Amino acid sequence: MSPGKPKFYLTTPIYYTNGLPHIGHTYTTVVADTIRRYKRMRGYEVVMTTGTDEHGVNVERAAQKAGIPESAFVAKMAAEWRSLWDELGLTADEFVRTTDLHHVRTVQWLFRLCRENGYVYKGQYTGQYCIYDNAFVNDAKPGDDCPDCGRPTETITEENYFFKLSAFQKPLLDFYKKNPDFIQPESRRNEIVSFVEGGLKDLSITRTTVRWGIPVPGEEQHVFYVWFDALTAYLSAVGGPEFERRGMWPADLHLVGKDIIRFHTVYWPAFLMAAMQPVPKQVWAHGWFLMDAAKMSKSKGNVVLPRPIANRLGMDALRYFLLREVVFGQDGNFSYDALVTRYNSDLANGLGNLASRTAALVEKNFGGKIPKATERKPQDESLAKEVQSAIGDVLENYENLSFARALETIWGVIASADKYLTSEQPWALGNSEPEQARKAAVLWTTAELLRIVTVLGHPVLPASTEKVWALLGQTGSPAAVELDGLRWGQLAPGKQLGKAQALFPRVDKDEAVERIEAMANEELNPAPAAQSAKPAVGASPAGAAAAPQAAPEKIGIEDFAKVEMRVGQIKTAERIVGADKLLKLTVDIGTEIRQICAGIAQYYEPEKLIGRKVAVVVNLAPRKLRGVESNGMIIAAAVGPDGRPVLAGFPDEDVEIGSRLR
Ligand code: ME8
Cα(259) to centroid of ligand 1, in Å? Predict the structure, then answer.
């Protein structure tokens, strides 16, 4: 720790490695990254930790399915998580893996302390067990089937270590009372307090039926079971048993989704209290991003991925949307339409337009040098006051994690600048001395406002504010500005503007959404040859070009056989409101009628398609296109430079519906 600087330690959850990050994980990590940048600008020494939760039965199974050892499987997954965060500019200071040796040591140390202090005992755990999957099924009752394989579960009893959670009812309630800000938001706090008031049962913290986990020292048949292992990662990341040396523990803030609040606000402080170690200061549980009002899951086909959005619109656009669209703490719906609408209105027309307009006016009237304001009219004064008071509001909102309000305030200032320019009309002023003076005052005022907006917006829009900063001729980075010293009036005249660069080029909504969806589909269902050819994420839409193609590889017949194509007949066809290129079709594939979307609307009249026989990929995972479920794919040739679709068909013979294509 640097002497003299206050410290701030914050964490995201340690994410499971059985999948790859979607927009939900990205949300928590974006929030953490924003706080990290904001706190640094307020003079804190900040450490942010993220990582991967790599033990347990799900990993055992996934590794088995992939035909590789667990350690190789998790190493690959952890590398993918880490590199995606890097690509998205979300680089934490610490990345902890629960298979790291220092984490293993920390878990064993914490367990030893809990045991020495009398809070751990051996007991019998009875639960419903699936003998096919070799795993206990949480929350199942006798007679229930396994939710994974659907076969009956059996009641099994095994010897486990238990943690005496029941002993912590009173200490926890006292702790919540003494630290009313520990659980945020308020509504979650009430929920947890009543849960604890209802009584706490002891907790089984080891398993003998799981192999892939951290062993209990000396009793290797016991491995630690999920939460005792995972939660401890926060402490491992900043020194483990030697945390005092690093000076970062206890955590100032654990950011989590509402799904895991109980583990963080009940189990975790209880484990630490039992070990007589410092307890974190705050747990903040945000809501979920939903897709079509449902939690995202790959099997439902409604997962939103961050990379395609970052590729097409830039990562700042995604950050802005996530933080602006939903009040932090509440659930929110994710929609590509809303994302692109906000991009165009707030970023392209709002911040982007103000920056380029200001730069162009300064360029034209003052040879690109920021003018000196020698007069101050009441309207200049009142704008200055508004901005000065916005600084205080924005800082307060950031401090309370009210990101949407902070951004609303900043964008209110941008709107005021637009109004100010419209009413002052600097472009209509001539070259007489008083008119020159007026122009100088108006443009200095606008540039000063833009400087302050840039600094205030930096934690949320790190890449684009760097560009505005350079455009304003400022040296260094807005990240280096101390927020507590930010005041109206600090913009020095005479600075030469930097080169103009596109910040947020306006996009065509349909085109952008279709492109993002196509990239997402490609990432979720990669063609075998393209598996390793992920498009790189560019910070700006300039990086939005087509995905680089992998060199074509040969596939075996067994790979081809995985694709099930059949003859289908189109029964109905209609246009989709708001999607120029898509048609919604129902297609008879012999065994059933499927709804399938096809990107052929610009070339085929829906009415003329009815009755037409087409080739259909029938075993593609269902996916959503512009919010419409598509369960299969119609095959078409992509012809000419713009890839005009031409449907594959059967003109020579009347083939039977449902026949397989080989
Ligand atoms: O629970 N909306 O890991 P996990 C918003 N390994 N946030 C979401 C979200 C959504 N739709 N989906 C996921 C685990 N998240 C454990 C944690 S911590 C010691 C161990 C975010 O991979 C949110 O932060 O299932 C949620 O709590 C977390 O991802 C769950 O990630």
Answer: 7
Spatial CA neighbour of 576 closest among 617, 517, 648, 527: 517
Mean pLDDT of all residues belonging to the chain = 91
- Within 564-641, residue ranges assigned H as helices are 606-609
Closest ligand 1 atom to residue 231 Cα is 19
H-only helix segments in 403-561: 403-424, 433-457, 462-471, 509-524, 557-561
| Amino acid found at 102 | H
Residue 325 contacts residue 332 (beta carbons within 8 Å)? yes
Give the separation between CA 492 and CA 371, rounded to whole angstroms.
9
- 283 Cα: distance to centroid of ligand 1 (angstroms): 14
Q: Using CA positions, which residue lies closest to atom 8 of ligand 1?
A: 24
Spatial separation of the C-alpha atoms in residues 653 and 662, rounded to whole Å = 16
Ligand 1 atom nearest to 260, measured from its CA: 27
Residue 257 Cα to ligand 1 midpoint, Å, equals 6
Q: What is the pLDDT of residues 260-311, one digit of tens each?
A: 999 999 999 999 999 999 999 999 999 999 987 787 776 677 889 999 999 9
pLDDT of residue 554: 67
pTM of the model: 0.81
CA distance 308 to 520: 6
User: Do the beta carbons of residue 388 and residue 328 sit within 8 Å?
Assistant: no
Q: Which residues line ligand 1 (CB under 6 A)?
A: 13-16, 24-25, 27-28, 53, 230-231, 233, 256-257, 259-260, 288-289, 295-296
**C-alpha–C-alpha distance, residues 74 and 59, integer Å:** 8
